[in-house]
Amino acid sequence: xxxxxxxxxxxxxxxxxxxxxxxxxxxxxxxxxxxxxxxxxxxxxxxxxxxxxxxxxxxxxxxxxxxxxxxxxxxxxxxxxxxxxxxxxxxxxxxxxxxxxxxxxxxxxxxxxxxxxxxxxxxxxxxxxxxxxxxxxxxxxxxxxxxxxxxxxxxxxxxxxxxxxxxxxxxxxxxxxxxxxxxxxxxxxxxxxxxxxxxxxxxxxxxxxxxxxxxxxxxxxxxxxxxxxxxxxxxxxxxxxxxxxxxxxxxxxxxxxxxxxxxxxxxxxxxxxxxxxxxxxxxxxxxxxxxxxxxxxxxxxxxxxxxxxxxxx
Length: 313
Prior knowledge:
Blueprint: E1 20-23, H1 25-38, E2 42-46, H2 49-52, H3 55-61, H4 64-79, E3 82-85, H5 88-96, E4 104-106, E5 131-135, H6 144-154, E6 162-166, H7 172-181, E7 188-192, H8 196-205, E8 208-211, H9 226-233, E9 238-241, E10 256-259, H10 264-275, H11 278-295, H12 298-312
Parallel strand pairs: 1-2, 2-3, 3-4, 5-6, 5-8, 6-7, 8-9, 9-10
Helix pairs in contact: 1-4, 6-10, 9-11
């Protein structure tokens, strides 16, 4: 509650630590006391909601960790060595929110391009019909309701197309009811949350991956959209909304399409374009793979991160 590390701070092994790297700003505030006691650098990676969510919403949420963050944020700004933003969009948001500009840097989260690879064959047991894929939590910011509405439009000209949705959350029941109301239940499969290893084959064999995120009243916004770069690495065309950092993961007209947020007709049109034009989809997939290997490769990003560590040690 008060930021004291108490008995934990007396552990002998802690003296071996040379640097702490915390993920999400509220967790970094909790690590601050330890970093100070050991007099070692503290690097913080912000991932989105820890920056874009308004202070009032944090207070209304009522979590002790949120109160601790608001109370200790200025101390974190002062002591923190570097603050990493997972996108250029988030970097700008962080500076606007008061993070010290000279300490804020952009560093994309890396993906394993040796694991996320294009499919070896055109068909698999799980791809007996063409499908588009959504991998997202069932929360408002992900805009899955927009995707369902757009998909109902696409089905008019592509009646055999399927939508596979992987994820879970507070809106699961509402989303299933919406699919029923739209009379698209037979073409939509909600698989729930799955381990990463089980998700990968679905990504590799889909016709397109869609992330239809929106801006929310709380201020929460998609900071990047890692699933888009994973799909691109698999040679899959991606469709996303012009929200937050998504335009940094999708090159419009090259690796996929960007659509206007909340515009279900625009989203439906772009989905239809990709699924009805295999040559276009293949071209976008190849360019997406190139982008993933050039910009988002895990090994390159890890070397860059290690260089940041070295500067502080």
